[in-house]
Write a structure and sequence with these properties.
Layout (H helix, E strand, L loop, with lengths): L7 E5 L9 E5 L13 H7 L2 H8 L10 H5 L12 E6 L5 E5 H17 L7 E4 L5 H13 L2 E4 L6 H11 L3 E5 L3 H7 L8 E5 L12 E3 H7 L14 E7 L7 E6 L3 H10 L8 E4 L6 H13 L3 E5 L5 H10 L4 E4 L1 H8 L15 E5 L5 H11 L3 E5 L9 E2 L10 E5 L5 E4 L12 E5 L10 E2 L3 H5 L2 E2 L2 E10 L5 E6 L4 E3 L2 E3 L1 H9 L4 E11 L3 E10 L7 H14 L8 E4 L13 H9 L13
Parallel strand pairs: 3-13, 5-6, 5-7, 6-10, 7-8, 8-9, 12-13, 12-14, 14-15, 15-16, 28-29
Antiparallel strand pairs: 1-2, 3-4, 10-11, 11-21, 16-17, 17-18, 18-24, 19-20, 20-23, 22-23, 23-24, 25-26, 27-28
The protein binds 5'-O-[(S)-ethoxy(hydroxy)phosphoryl]adenosine.
């Protein structure tokens, strides 16, 4: 058995910006495959988005395009039509493969189904499904028609669904028999929702009712020919709801042309080559699943694995082994869970693995050291956000890794650490991580129906990420934390307001304040401070009831794992909950400026 790993060496160096980290040195000459990006500095100097557009965008003769054509149809011509695009394994172990040719036909059929049922360009069609091939067929089918695809995490319950479907004015939802009851509960309050499509995969009884459409039934009748919608680069393609500090989740909307940066990064950062077997473990309900589970790898014509089963070290190592995965894009919490498990990756044959990357939350150095020991390869940390639509600050196959650092800006992207006035701060000093908006090709095009929110991201010519960071003397960026109250739990972004709103719906609760509490495994957990009604017992039973309520009504992942009863929440004089103060007190930190605190 040949060792297919990329060789690295490690040197302990003096202090890098006082982190005392070691450097993982690369020797690309010893790599199994020549990296797609062979010289970071040179590429950074020479790269322009204009040139990338020419290389990656396939325009129709009239100068328009369609991201689904780029991702699917153009690979379905000639020899690559029979290339495997998708390798699927279901939760019960059934295996299916789909070629680019087959996906072209299926996505055309689905676009025809939508057309037949009155969906038009610009309409919002939401996908609420588990990780099954139909999810991708539906996604690319929606884009073919020129409608906007919204994706939803399958752990969402009716409150989370209500906010997203109402705000977006979704016309159609595609779901299955298991998830449909959550939609059914709120349908009467969603005036724009005309039809629900049920994907019949599985043996459960199918729901029946007015305005329900059955996927398989419709697909069998549909034509495999479809006149794909001709779109402009700026025309909207997909949307995702994401959380900030205040208010309900916001609809971040992206455009067809954004696929350029998805492809550039899949190639330069994830180093995906034509013959790679690539596995992105993110759910399509989150941005990583859309960009690196769909647009990027399909855009490059690669072969992707999708796995419906639950996370467990055995399941995941088996997928890596059985599909001979070469490139693996995953998240820190998963890595830490693997790390803490008694199941060793050494019990599996993972010798095809060649490149590992991670996203979503800080990747702690220990996880990188463990990866090196377990797989003989370092995990490459990548940083970006839903709003940015693709990776922007990152590590590269060819570049030395400084464990704990997010790496350097993508060629084409200008990033900096700035102060409140938009001035760059000196090396090593903490500040706001900001990017020049015109250099992020896949930057969101709008926040759905909320121009004020959209505008609030931009100041002094910068796009403000809301993250704090510092840069070392060699240009590596280091993540420090969020500048606001956004919570990252197991890599999933949760807005405290959404959880607080769900908590106060519970009959025992008067008020609630929610924070992210540091957690070794999950990065952060959601902690709620709750004021209960007089007479309610402040005991474990009550806590459990409240937790279960949020889990069952808001989302399976976004419930407080810890609850503390409090007599009164700290608030500003204008009535805003001071979550910062709750957090400082929780962590035993100085309370900072409390001059705006109401009498307490
Ligand atoms: C955090 C996920 C540290 C960060 C693609 C950011 C990270 C937010 C990293 C965006 C990383 C993402 N190191 N923190 N490598 N990657 N984050 O929109 O706070 O779900 O602002 O996008 O996740 O989360 P989102």
């Amino acid at each position: 058995m040949t060792d297919k790993r990329n060789l690295v060496t490690i040197t302990t160096i003096y202090q890098i910006m006082n982190t005392g980290a070691n450097i993982i040195h690369k020797d690309p000459k010893k790599f199994v495959k020549k990296p797609n990006l062979s010289d970071y500095e040179k590429t950074y100097k020479e790269f322009t988005w204009k040139k990338a557009e020419k290389e990656y965008l396939d325009f129709f003769e009239d100068g328009t395009l369609n991201a689904s054509y780029i991702a699917i149809d153009r690979h379905a011509i000639g020899k690559s039509a029979s290339k495997n695009a998708l390798l699927f394994e279901s939760a019960t172990g059934e295996k299916e493969t789909y070629t680019y040719g087959q996906l072209k036909d299926l996505t055309n059929k689905f676009a025809n189904v939508l057309d037949l049922h009155g969906v038009q360009k610009g309409d919002r069609v939401f996908i609420f499904l588990p990780t099954i091939p139909e999810r991708l067929v539906v996604f690319f089918g929606i884009l073919k028609l020129g409608a906007i695809a919204g994706t939803l995490f399958s752990a969402f319950m009716e409150m989370a669904l209500m906010d997203r479907l109402l705000d977006s004015g979704a016309k159609v939802v595609v779901t299955n028999a298991t998830l449909f009851p959550r939609i059914q509960k709120i349908w009467k309050d969603l005036p724009a929702l005309e039809k629900v499509i049920i994907v019949e995969r599985g043996s459960v009884d199918q729901p029946k009712g007015e305005n329900l459409i059955y996927y398989k039934h419709e697909m069998e009748k549909a034509s495999a020919d479809f006149a794909i919608a001709h779109m402009q680069k700026e025309d909207l393609s997909y949307m995702l709801y994401t959380s900030g500090t205040t208010g309900k989740p916001k609809g971040v909307v992206h455009a067809h042309g954004d696929i350029v940066q998805a492809m550039v990064t899949t190639k330069f950062v994830l180093d995906v080559h034509e013959d790679d077997i690539y596995w992105c473990t993110a759910d399509l309900g989150w941005v990583t699943g859309v960009v690196y589970g769909a647009l990027g790898p399909f855009g490059l014509g690669a072969t992707s694995v999708i796995f419906e089963g639950r996370f467990s070290p055995e399941n995941w190592y088996k997928v890596l082994q059985d599909y001979q995965v070469t490139v693996w894009y995953t998240a820190p919490t998963a890595i830490r869970m693997l790390m803490g498990s008694p199941v060793s990756p050494k019990e599996y044959n993972l010798s095809n693995l060649r490149f590992l990357a991670s996203v979503g939350e800080p990747l702690n150095p220990e996880a990188i050291w463990w990866g090196l020991e377990a797989f003989g390869l370092p995990f490459h940390d990548t940083w970006w956000q839903t709003e940015q639509g693709s990776i922007t600050v990152t590590n590269y196959s060819v570049m030395d890794v400084r464990p704990g650092s997010m790496g350097k800006p993508l060629p084409g992207v200008i990033a900096a650490v700035i102060d409140e006035d938009g001035k760059e701060v000196p090396v090593g000093e903490e500040g706001h991580l900001a990017l020049k908006p015109e250099t992020i090709y896949s930057l969101m095009k709008q926040i759905w129906g909320n121009k004020e929110k959209f505008d609030s991201y931009f100041r002094n010519g910068w796009y403000l990420s809301g993250d704090k960071a510092f840069k070392d003397k060699d240009g590596y960026f280091w993540f420090v934390g969020r500048a606001d109250d956004v919570i990252k739990t197991s890599g999933e972004r949760v807005g405290p307001f959404e959880v607080e709103s769900a908590l106060v719906e519970h009959e025992d609760v008067i008020e609630a304040g929610v924070i992210g509490k540091p957690d070794e495994l999950r990065g952060e957990i959601i902690k709620a401070f709750v004021v209960v009604k007089p007479g309610v017992e402040k005991n474990e039973e009550t806590k459990k009831r409240i937790m279960a309520y949020v889990k069952q009504h808001l989302a399976g992942h976004a419930y407080p794992r810890e609850i503390e009863f409090i007599d009164k929440l700290p608030k500003t004089r204008s009535g805003k909950i001071m979550r910062r103060l709750l957090k400082s007190r929780e962590l035993g930190l100085p309370e900072g400026d409390t001059s705006t605190l109401e009498d307490y």
